[in-house]
Amino acid sequence: MVMMVALLANDTYVQVIEAHSLATNSRNQRRLINEYATQRGMIMAANGQVLATSVATDDAFRFLRQYPGGAPYADVTGYYSLNYGAGGIENAENTVLDGTDDKLFVQRLSDLITGRNHQGGNLQLTIEPKIQQAAYDTLTKNGFTGAAVAIQPSTGQILAMTSTPSYDPTGLGSHDNAAQTKAWTSANAGDPAPMFNQPVNAAYQPGSTFKLVVAAAALSNHVADENTPSLPADPKITLPGTSATLSNFDNETCPGSVNGQVSMKTAIAYSCNTAFASLAGKVGAPALSAEAAKFGFGQRLSIPLGVTPSCVGPAAGGNCMNIPNGTPGLYQSGIGQLDVQETPLQDALIAATIANGGKEMYPQLVKSILGPDLSTIQGFSPKVLNDEVMSGDVANQLTDMMLAAEQHAGTANKNPNIQIAAKTGTAEHGTNPKDTQPYGWYVAFAPHRDIAVAVVVTAGGTLDAATVGAKVAGPVGRAMINAALGG
User: Fold this and answer.
1) What pairs with residue 233 in β-bridges?
2) Which positions fall inside the Penicillin binding protein A dimerisation domain (predicted)?
3) Which residue range is the domain that position 180 belongs to?
């Protein structure tokens, strides 16, 4: 037995420590032949659907990596390539998939004793194919560039995570150098490149979806309540201390005003910019920044893919949580402009936290680690990211406001049998924003049904500078919720 353990320790040293040294030369032929002599584990969806697998070949590299899931799952699986290494989950969970992880020590020892060929462990993800496919199909059929994320609010499990344009990782798994080069070039062409993981690494101005954070801060700090008309309904206001103005969509007076003022609920329902810019001014920069931090802004999460932090201010000294430019900057930040930037994952977390009564769960992409025989090696339990972003009462008030907002968010893909609480967003950007297609956002959840979604559409289709989030992102988000709930 001692001899067996010693042999296994030496085997582990060669595979992990010495292999790491050899890996400085990515084309080291011996290293690659040894690496590809092991059957790499599968990556599966929550329902067992195989998204990535290795099949035997008759060439020097014994196993070929294939991706039955294809382009809809590329943001999740990543790729595994002879020439280009690994990305996505293939990289983040590489030691599990190649079998060298400590969690698989007993399995390796058993293989050594019995003489079985060494195999990698398998990963079961939290992704639900019907939701993932609905998101990808709805984005692509309209020719949109964008991203979509779905989260289970009660657990933090990521139910869908996809973006367009995408790529099929199978080409990168080829053993043919020319085929790999062609696939790599294609996957890295354009802006955004298909290989760029928009759901977790693209941070865009969120527009009016950020009003949910402002509203949470206002309610939590007793600055305003849901139903009292106390916010300006003016079609435009002048930013304090400047001659610049900030206006509502189409320069209209906010509907439902009483003596020139509207309630927070009405301002959310009709997405009134002047009301929320003023509300942000009342909340103040410190309280608004603190509320955003509670939601996870400024944090670098691992799901286990690395997540780009969302921000409310410019990055400076490793911090991006200081709202700039005094009161004018605060007003602009209050409507999700200026330096406010969010990943689609962060916007989904905002909706999920409201849906979960104010408790924010840590987002998770891996459901369980399985042995080569599909036995469970480790299951992942829900973790709390923030136990109380807001009180349950504040979450209920925000839900009520979002139910009202959904009534003004378009009708495409709307199912009368599914109640949805939502908020749309339309964010200007670029050097000439009035002539640039804005970012269109939609965040939503189905109350008491345990699904929250976020969608951003950044380009594509027949869109122009007048495009709004309700028109482009809303139908994608509803398609995801419908797929999840059988609508």
Assistant:
1) none
2) 40-122
3) 2-126+168-184
Is 344 domain-assigned? no
The residues, ordered by sequence, that sit 6+ positions from 17 with a Cβ below 8 Å of its Cβ are none
Per residue in 408-458, pLDDT tens? 888 889 899 999 999 999 998 888 877 788 899 999 999 999 999 999 999
- The answer to whether residues 139 and 162 touch, using CB atoms and an 8 Å cutoff, is yes
Residues 107, 82 contacting (CB under 8 angstroms)? no
H helices of 257-316, where? 264-269, 273-283, 285-295
Residue 314 lies in a domain: yes
Indicate whether 144 belongs to any domain. Answer: no
Q: Is the dihedral of CA 205, 126, 473, 423 positive or negative?
A: negative
How do 144-151 and 452-460 pair as beta strands?
A: antiparallel
Q: Dump pLDDT digits (tens) for 343-402.
A: 999 999 999 999 999 999 999 999 999 999 999 999 999 999 999 999 999 999 999 999
Distance CA 316, CA 298 (A): 12
CA atoms within 13 A on the CB side of 168: 10
* DSSP string of 277-291, one letter each residue: HHHHHHH-HHHHHHH
Q: Give whole-number Cα distances, 357 to 149, 178, 390, 398, 399, in Å.
A: 20, 53, 8, 10, 9
Q: Which two tokens stand for residue 334?
A: 């209050």
CATH classification of the domain holding 98:
3.90.1310.10
pTM, to two decimals: 0.91
Give Dmax (Cα) for the chain: 87
Helix (H, G, I), strand (E, B) or coil at 376: strand
Phi, psi of 152 (to 5 degrees): -85, 110
Measure the CA dihedral 175/94/204/396, to 10°: 140
Name 370's bridge partners.
Answer: 122, 376
State the residue for tokens 């062409």.
189
Structure tokens at 432: 């000439």
Establish whether the linkage from the previous residue to 192 is cis, with ω within 30° of 0: yes
Average pLDDT, the chain: 91
Q: What is the CATH number of the domain that holds 251?
A: 3.40.710.10
Question: Do 207 and 426 touch, CB atoms closer than 8 A?
Answer: yes
pLDDT by residue (tens digit) across 189-223?
A: 999 999 999 999 999 999 999 999 999 999 999 99
Residue with tokens 């969806």: 45
CA proximity to 32, closest of 19, 45, 41, 42: 19
Helical spans, DSSP H, in 29-128 = 29-35, 74-77, 89-92, 94-97, 105-114
